[in-house]
Amino acid sequence: MVLKILDTAVNCVTLRVACKDARGMRIYRADRADGVFEEVGVTREDRFVDAADLIPGKTYYYIAVGSDRHPEQGELKDMEPVEAQVPCAPCEKQVDLTQEAEAFEVQMGGYVDESNAVTLGPEVYCPGPNSSMPPYDRVFEPNLYVVIENTGETDLVNPWLMANGQRDWWSVEAMAKEAIGGRDLDEEERMMALWQFVVDEVYDSRCGMSWYDDVSDPVKLFNAYGFEGCIGYAIATSRLGEVMGVKSREVWVGGILDGHGRGRQCSHTIFEAWANGAWHLLDTDQMVFFLKRDNQTVASVADLARDPELMSRSHRNLGLAGKDLAEKDYYSAQFKNREFVYPANLSAAWTRRDGRVQQDTTQLPPPHTMAMRLRPGEKLVRYWDQVGKTVVRGRRLHPEVRYSNGKLVYRPDLRNPLALGGLEQQVNVVQEMSERLPAVHPIQEQRVSRMIWKVHSPYPIAGARVGLSYRRASRKDGLEVLLSLDGNDWRSVWVAVGHRTSACVDLDWYLNPALFDWRGDWDPGWRVGPRYEYYVQVAMWAGANAGDVGVDKIWFDTDLQCATRSLPSLFCGENHIQYRDETKGKRNVRITYGWQEEHCIKPPDIPELVFPDDGAELDQTDFEFRWKSPGGNGSQVDDYHVQVSRYPDFRWCVCPTFDRYVSRTAYQGKTRWQPQFAGLLNPGERYYWRVRARNTQGVWSDWSRVCAFSLHSFQED
Fold it and tell me: 278: burial class by Cβ within 10 Å (0-12, 13-18, 19+)?
């Protein structure tokens, strides 16, 4: 058997292919055994992954022929296909909307969701630069996919979904609003809210994309990637802070050298914020900050250079992901030797519309938004899983880096007049209603006909396929597909062979920079970054009769890379979903959520706090926090998460030392914990603490009750 189904998922079908020769096999697919087969790709490997516009719950039929053949439909129907059932989402909700802003509810059952299934880290490569972090452990993901589909007759402008009032990251202004959270914050509190917002939503995995795709734009960083290194974090945090009213600057630390397009090269880049008349170091990459000896004021780089011992009294690396290790003195040498500078330039690099990298020390790139337009029949599909389509490549990228894949799918009905409205340009083209002739063909023979489509995405494009069914009466008739990255310069990517058949043109190698070794050259000036748009032209030439050549069907399947945590996730219980767009006039939108529920794995019970109890006044500044071990609900408890804050809502902790997984400290396996560093709590101040437990299945409990405590003010006799 040439084909065998190896696996099916809601977003892909994996086939084993017995390639008969090195030229490979051409794969065709139909949605009925006796239906019309469309080519979905060519493979020279023994595995082929079909991820082109699959509909969950539908059965598909596959056949394969040698890549040197171009069979017509009659030949394909005589072959024996293999059958693949794409699984349904166990739960699905579909809603049709007609207003520019509407809300609906989705009820999700089970016990496990993002709030209790995620454990950050663990730290394995650090401390130090030129390293990478694993993202986070996740035992179960209930969300499968969400679809926004234009079912109307007019373009849908800037459609957007938000779940439970979270992650409205359409623009940097929307992100700033969410980070502030409607609170009346002073200068210092805005600074801390900014730091906490960034470290909560993105994680360290140094891929170096700052140079090629302006990951220093907070909208791109949060929506398309969700991971980067110090340069991207420092600039993105600074740009977000500017909108929040936080004055900021970059600091370059260690190994200061000229070059690399930014004016200098350094071993680490840090963000500093201005509040209360002073600068404060807030490292969103290493997820740390350091307190001065008053245990309240966040120290600056200059403070740490004057008093390096400040670094020895606080947790120093990667926040929750890090371990309590005495040798973690990553910052010490640079600050002791005063190896840091405050760069005067803006350190900007981004990908221009033509795909080239623009570097400029006088301006930042234009801000990105999630603006997009869906034509009638077009849909945006986002999966929480991925099929291996990423625009990132590099030695420092962790092999388990977390991201999601999505799709833009457009299948215009070429016999419907609405289809011509989706074109950027048409020349010498006529549309036919009768199936006797091609759906679109030249008006006049002996003259080139052109149809140009533009595909634009707010997410980076990780690949694309263009499929078409065409007719061609003789060798005098021509049909060609051309690709452009800017709408001006074109290159031929496919020429028709055969008389009446289908073809699939794979554009991955033209659009995805990760598929060729673009990191092998040290000059970043000529390199290309990920694309956010491309143009496809279908050119036709009729030799004798205008109706002898033409296209019956065309489809565009564009792969996208998305940051998983940016997606509008469902949580256990009732979810409030808000939709909005900026369409003028009528619209018809269909929203589809697909998810699964976990009813077998249950979170452990909530720990009971023992010491200090609520309202306690303590006579010592250093002590052990203690609690009782809860029931594991079917499995043992293997970790605890302790937080201590000055705020009862735990908007941020006293410092990173007071936000710890106990398993990564000397108290692993115990129901007590004491900070690694002494003297960080002040007499006369009120603090709040809480704990949650994790079982061996990786699921966290709810947080315990909050207990307040204070320390007596000690006066000398």
Answer: middle
* 283 closest CA partner among 302, 295, 269: 269
Alpha helices in 44-171 (DSSP H): 73-77, 114-117
Nearest CA to 370 among 103, 564, 174?
174
User: CA nearest 412: which of 382, 439, 446?
Assistant: 439
The residue written with tokens 């949580």 in the block is 571
- Report how far residue 403's alpha carbon sits from residue 385's, in angstroms, rounded to the nearest whole number: 8
| Contact in structure between 596 and 385 (CB atoms under 8 Å) | no
Give the CATH number, domain containing residue 660: 2.60.40.10
- List pLDDT tens digits, range 414-448: 999 999 999 999 999 999 998 899 999 999 999 99
pLDDT of residue 349: 60
Q: What is the pTM of this model?
A: 0.92
The verdict on whether omega for the bond into residue 612 sits within 30 degrees of 0, i.e. cis, is yes
User: Residue 343 CA to chain centroid, in angstroms?
Assistant: 30
Q: Is the domain of 466 the same as that of 557?
A: yes
Question: What is the phi/psi pair of residue 405, to 5°?
Answer: -110, 150
CB 61 within 8 A of CB 35: yes
Structural domain includes residue 32 = yes
- Together in a domain, 336 and 216: yes
Q: Is residue 90 part of a domain?
A: no
Look at residue 210 and give its three-state secondary structure. Answer: helix
On whether residue 595 sits in a domain, the answer given is no
Same domain, 402 and 539: yes
- The last residue of a domain, from among 85, 104, 127: 85
CA nearest to 235, candidates 367, 108, 338, 131? 367
Cα(408)–Cα(379) distance, rounded to whole angstroms? 6
261 with 349: CB under 8 angstroms?
A: yes
453 conformational bin, left if phi > 0, alpha if psi -120 to 50, beta if neither? beta
Using a pLDDT cut of 90, give the percent of the chain over it.
64
- What is the full DSSP assignment across 10-73? TTEEEEEE--SSTT-EEEEEESSTTS--EEEEEESSSEEEE-SS--TT-EEEEEEEETT----H
Q: Are 569 and 106 in contact (CB under 8 A)?
A: no
Shared domain check, 682 and 543? no
Q: Do residues 184 and 79 both lie within one domain?
A: no
Query: Strands, E, within 133-277: which ranges?
Result: 136-138, 143-150, 156-157, 160-163, 203-204, 227-228, 248-253, 257-258, 264-265, 268-275
Domain that holds residue 204: 171-360
Does residue 538 share a domain with residue 494? yes
Q: How many domains does the chain have?
A: 4
Sign of CA dihedral 15, 404, 145, 136: positive
In a domain, 102, yes or no: no
**Beta strand segments in 496-636, E:** 500-506, 531-541, 549-562, 573-580, 589-595, 608-611, 616-618, 625-628
348-390 pLDDT tens trace: 566 666 666 666 666 777 889 999 999 999 999 999 999 989 8
- Regarding whether 290 and 207 lie in a shared domain, the answer is yes
How many residues are there in the chain? 717
227 vs 205: CA distance, rounded Å = 6
CATH of the domain at 415: 2.60.120.260
The CATH number of the domain holding residue 299 is 3.10.620
Q: Which two tokens stand for residue 63?
A: 């056949």
Burial 355-389 (b: 16+ CB within 10 A, else e): bebbbeeeebbeebbbebbbbbbbbbbbbbbbbeb
Peptide bond into 129 cis (omega under 30): no
Distances (CA, A) of 53 to 93, 279, 311, 422, 465: 19, 51, 53, 19, 10
The domain boundary residue, chosen from 62, 85, 108: 85
Residues 263 and 354 in one domain: yes
Whole-angstrom Cα distance, residue 554 to residue 377?
A: 13
Decide if 168 contacts 588 (C-beta within 8 A).
no
